[in-house]
Write a structure and sequence with these properties.
The protein is rod-shaped. It has five helices and four strands; from the N terminus they run ααααββββα. With 188 residues, it is an alpha+beta fold. It has three domains: 51 residues, no CATH class; 62 residues; 53 residues, no CATH class. It has a four-stranded antiparallel sheet with strand order 1-2-3-4, covered by helices on one side. 67% of the residues lie in helices and 13% in strands.
Length: 188
């Protein structure tokens, strides 16, 4: 096969949309010798032959390859941008998870403090209730002072009978002595 007929055959197969590799495979299958007479046909040798002929199909292939390369580069840039965005979002998510964990720890501390404060408050309430239930024992002029239900009273046993005098919510010793005087004068 002459060089010119080989070029025409390559152009004919290429016009049928066969790839360079398929044309090379076709030539190898048909045992068509390479231009140098050595080795086997490859897609690179088919492409070089077409490039030297200024064939419009080769120019079209080159333009397509250039467009494909440009699209590939654009897609790779977009892929890298998406990967970086993914990394950034992953980092933000990790920061948010860490902040969430820190906040949960703080919340647990606050809950513990709240529980401790409730215990203290209940103890104080219990102590206050206990104190209010306990009768305050003191004595004014031989009369026992007792606090019951938040009110003070004076009690004394006279001639086998218990007598009581109401004082009120507070104790004033002078007022108590005056009430004792008035009460004892009334029972004589």
């Amino acid at each position: 096969m002459t060089k010119e007929s080989m070029i025409k055959e390559i152009q004919r197969l290429r016009s049928k949309s066969l790839s360079y590799q398929k044309i090379a495979d076709n030539f190898n299958k048909r045992k068509i010798q390479t231009i140098s007479g050595r080795g086997k046909w490859g897609k690179g040798s088919i492409g070089r032959i077409l490039s030297k002929t200024n064939d419009p199909l080769y120019t079209q292939d080159t333009n397509k390859n250039s467009q494909v390369q440009h699209q590939r580069n654009s897609m790779l840039k977009e892929l890298n941008r998406v990967k970086q965005t993914n990394i950034d979002l992953h980092n933000q998510l990790n920061k948010i998870k860490q902040q969430n964990e820190e906040l949960l720890n703080e919340l647990n501390k606050v809950k513990q403090m709240k529980a401790e404060l409730y215990k203290k408050l209940n103890k104080v309430k219990h102590d206050e209730e206990k104190q209010s239930k306990e009768k305050v024992k003191m004595s004014i002029d031989g009369w026992n002072v007792q606090k019951s239900g938040g009110y003070y009273r004076l009690f004394r046993k006279i001639a086998g009978k218990v007598h009581g005098i109401y004082l009120g919510k507070t104790i004033n010793e002078d007022v108590a002595k005056n009430k004792i005087n008035n009460y004892t004068q009334g029972i004589k």
